[in-house]
Please model this.
Amino acid sequence: MSRSSPSRMIPISCESEIPEWAMVELNGELLPPVELPAQQESEAILGVSDQVELGKLSVDRNKNPLMVLGSHQLKGKTESLKESFFVMEKVYDVTTETLEYYQVVGIIKTKYMFNQYPKVIMR
Model:
C-alpha cells in the first residue's frame, strides 16, 4: 500500500484589477524558423533570450483579428467564451522553496479563432 502525502489547501491571491487577455486558436501547426537568431541578437530585439517573434496580431475597429506570420496573412473572428479562464502563476516561498500560493495574473473571456486558409502576401 502506498502512502500519499496529506492534502493541503493552497490559497489563491487576486489583485483588485485583473488584466483581460485573449486566447488565440489556430488550425494547423506553427513551425519555428529553421535557424534561430543568435542569443545576443534575440536579446537586443526582444529583451529576453530564447524567444522568437512569430508574427504580428492586430484587431480592427469591428473586433476582427488579423495575424501576419512571415509571408502569410490570416483573418479570423472574435468569439466570447462560454466560461472564462483564469491564468495563474505559482508563487514559492524563497526560503523553503515550497509552493506558497497561486497569483491570478489574468482572465481570458475572448478567443480569436483563425480557421481559414492563410493568404500569401508579398513584401
Remarks:
- The mean pLDDT is 82.
